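Table S2 (text version). Query chain:
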Amino acid sequence: MSSRKLIGRGFVERVSMAPAGAAFRAEPLLVAVLAIAYVLLFGGLLLTRTPPFAAQDEAFHWQRVLQIADGHLLAETLGPNSWGGPIDRAGYLQMLYHIDRIQKHGPVDPVEAYALSDHLAAQPRTPEVVAFSSSASFAPLAYLPQAVAVAVARAAGLGPLGQMQAGRFGNLAVYGLMVAAILRALPAGRVAILALALSPVALQSACSLSADPLNLTLPVLMLALVWRLRDRGTPLSRGEGAGLVALSAALGLLKLTMAPFAGAVLYLPAAVAGGSVRSRVALGGLCLTVAVGIAVLWNAAYPFVPGLYWGTGADPAAQIAQLRADPLEALRVLAATVRDWAVMWWRDGYGRYGGHPPPWHGYASDRWVLPAFWVLLALALCDGARRRDLSFAAGSLIPAPGYALLLLVAFWVGYTPVGGATVDGVQGRYFLPMHALVLLGLAAAAGAWSPAGLRRGLRLALFAAALALGGVVLMEVLDVWRSLWPVGVCCGG
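Corresponding C-alpha cell output:
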C-alpha cells in the first residue's frame, strides 16, 4: 500500500474517532451539569416547599438541634429511658403548633404559621425542659450542621421558622460537601454513588433536619478512601493513618450500626498499611476498636430502648434470652421479615415522603420506584475502575447482607415485642449504607470493560434515567406538599 493511502486512511480514522473521544471527555462534565442542575432545582424546592416538621421524624430532630444550638452537646437524664433537657421555648412552641395542625389531617396556613413565628421571635428567650429521648440519646455529631446554621440564624434575628429553614439549608450544604469528598476519593463507582446520593429519600433527608445525611456519607467516605488507597498502592503517610483513625472515631459517634464500617481499613494491602501483615492488622484493629469502643461507650451512657419509648412492648432481655434458647426460631423470624418486607423496604427507602399520618405521609408510584432499583445496579456495572479489584468487591458485597442482619437484630432486640412473627420498626432509609456497599462492590467487580464507548454511553444514559426517575418521584412529593403547605419560596420569620 502506498504511503499516500496509509496517511489518508490514518487521517480518516482520526477524524472518525474524534467525536467519540470528545464525547468521552465531555461525559464527566455532562454528569456534573446534570447533577448540579438537579440539586439546584429539587434541592431548592424541597428546602422551601416541604412543610415545617413534615419530614421523617423531623420534630424529634428539631428538638435535638435546638439543644445543640444552645451549646448543650450532652442530653440530661430525665428518668428511666428518658433524656432531653432545656431547649428554646419559642422553637418548641412553633413545632407543637405544626404537629397539632398535622395531626388534624389538614393543610397548614403559612400566613398563620409565620405570624406565630414573628410573635415568638419578639418574646424574651426562655427555656422549656422537654424529653425527646429518640434523638437526645444520639451523639451530637450528625446534628452539628443543622445546629450551627440554627445558631447563626438566631443571631441574625430570625424566628423559629427562619431558624428551621436555616437548619435544613446547613444540612444540605454539608451533605453536598460530603458527597463531593466521596466522589473525589473514589477511584470508580462515582456516578453510581452520586445517583444514590441524589435518590429521592436521600435528598429529602438532606433537605430536612435529619441525622441521616452524615450517617450515610461518613461510612461511604471510609469505603471510598480505602478503595483509593488500595488503588494508589503506595504506603500511608502518618497523616493519612491518623485521618483513618479520626474518621473511625466519627463513625463511632453515629448510629450504632455505622461503627463496623471502620473495619474497611483491614482491606488495605500490607504494603500500603505499613509494610507488613502485622501493621495492617494493627491499623485496622485500631480503627475498628476506636469506632466500636466509642459507639459502645456512648450507648452505655445513653441506653435508649426504642420499643419502650414507643410502647411496642419490647423487652430486650427477654429477646436475648429467647435468642440463646432457640436461635433457629430467631433465624426463622429474620427470614420471614426479609421475605415479607424486602420490596416494601425499597419502596420506603426510595419513594416515601413524610413522617406523619396520611395525607402527611405516603409513597410515590411503583412505576417509578421499582425500575430505579435496576437502573442503579446497571449503572454500577458500567462504572468500574481501570483495574478490576475483586478483593474490594468481595469486601463490599459480602458484608452487605451482614449489615442488613445487624440492623434487623438491633430492631428485633430493641423494638419488636417478644413473640412477634416479624421484626418491627425497620424503615427503608436505614438500608442506604447497604445499597452503597452493593454499588461499590459491583463497580469494583465490573472494572473498565470494553468497548469504552458503549460503557460510557450506557453510564451517562443510565445516570440520566436515574435522575429522571428520581425527579418524577420528587414531583409527586412536591405536589402533595403544595396542597398541604400552600406557599412558594418562603422567607422571613
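Notes on Table S2: The chain has two domains: 29-232+305-484, 233-304. The two ends are 80 Å apart (CA to CA).
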